[in-house]
Amino acid sequence: MGNQPIKMDTGNKVLLFIASLALLGTVLFLVSHLAGWLAGMQVSQPDTVSDERVAQRIAPIGQVVSGQVDSAEEAADLTPGDLYSNVCAACHDTGVSGAPIKDDTDEWSNRLNDKGLDTLFANSINGIGAMPARGGDPSLSDEQMRDVVAYMLDEAGVDHDYEGSDNGNGDSAAEDAAGGEEPVATTETGEAAAEEEAEAVAAIAVEDGDAERGQSRYNTCVACHGAQGQGTPVFPKLAGRDAEYIADKLVRYRAGETVGDQTALMTPNAANLSDEDIADLAVYVATFED
After folding, report:
1. Is the C-alpha dihedral spanning 163, 167, 169, 170 positive or negative?
2. What spans are recorded as compositionally biased (Low complexity) (predicted)?
3. pLDDT for 142-158, tens place per residue?
4. Is residue 62 in some structural domain?
5. Are 83 and 74 in contact (CB under 8 A)?
6. Owning domain of residue 88
7. How far apart are CA 160 and CA 204, in angstroms?
8. Which of 31, 98, 223, 282 is most buried as measured by Cβ atoms within 10 A of its Cβ?
9. Is residue 110 part of a domain?
10. In whole numbers, what is the pLDDT of the chain averaged over residues?
C-alpha cells in the first residue's frame, strides 16, 4: 500500500506546472534586481585625462609683466585738474593742516595779496609748513606746480596774471617760479591767441544781459552746479562769482580751451552759446549769493 505511486489527475498536473512557472519567474525577478543593486554599488572609475588636458585646465588666465615706469612721462600727460586730484586734493579739499580749500575765494585772495603769485609758486615747488615740496611728488615739474596753483586760484575765482603753460601740463618753457619774473607769451602765436581771447571776452556785453533769459537757460546747469550755484563735491560752486568771471569761463570753454578738469563736459555745453546767451547766463549766475 505504501509503495503505490501518487496518482495525479490532469487538473493537478496543470496547477503544478503553473506553480513551477510562477516560482521560476519570481526567482528570475529577484536575481535581476540583485544584479542591478550590485552594479550600483560598484565605484565608477575616473576617466583617464591626458597630461595635455591637465596642463590646459590649470594654465593661468593672464600674466603680470613688470618693468620700469617713467613717472615723469605719465605726469606730463595730465591736466592741472588731474594733478590736483592726484596730489593736492587730499589736503586742499578738506583744509588739513591749514591748507587753503580749493574754492575758498577769500582765503586764496588774501594769500595772493599778502604773498604775491611768485611766492605761492615757490611755496608749492619748495614746500612750506606741513606741505612737502611739490606736494610730495618729486616727478612734477616747476611748470606743473605753477599750473596747479593757477588752477586752484581759478577754481576760487581769484584773478591772477599767470597764463599757464601751452597745454596745461608743463610742456612750455616758462620762467622759473623762484626767479620772480612775470610770465610772458613765448611766441607770436601765443600772443595772438591771448589777444583773440581777450577780444572775445570783451565782445560779451554783460551789461546787456537779461537775468530772466539766463534763468531759463541755466536749467541745463542745475544738475551739476545746483539750483543756487552751490556746486557739488565734484562740480565747482558758482555762487559769489561776478558776471565777468562767468562770461570769461564760458568764452574759454566755447573756444575749446582747456580750463580745468571738467573741460570735456563743459566744452560741448558751451559750444553753441551765442554772445547773448553767455551774457544772460553771466548776469543770472551773478545773482547767486555766496
Report:
1. negative
2. 166-192
3. 999 999 899 999 999 99
4. no
5. no
6. 72-184
7. 21
8. 282
9. yes
10. 77
Cell of 116: 604775491
Question: Burial level of 155, CB count in 10 A (0-12/13-18/19+)?
Answer: buried
Cell digits of residue 138 = 618729486
Q: What is the DSSP letter of 84?
A: I
**Phi, psi for 43 (deg, rounded to 5):** -85, 125
The residue written with cell numbers 594654465 in the block is 59
| 177 and 248 inside one domain | no
- Note the pLDDT of residue 138: 80
Q: What is the pTM of this model?
A: 0.37
Reported as half-sphere exposure (CB side, CA atoms, 13 A), residue 194 has a value of 15
Number of independent structural domains in the chain: 2
Quick one: 180 and 201 in the same domain?
no
Q: Which amino acid is at 158?
A: V
- Report residue 85 as a C-alpha cell: 586730484
Residues 64-79 as b/e (b if ≥16 CB within 10 A, e otherwise) read: eeeeeeeeeeebbebb
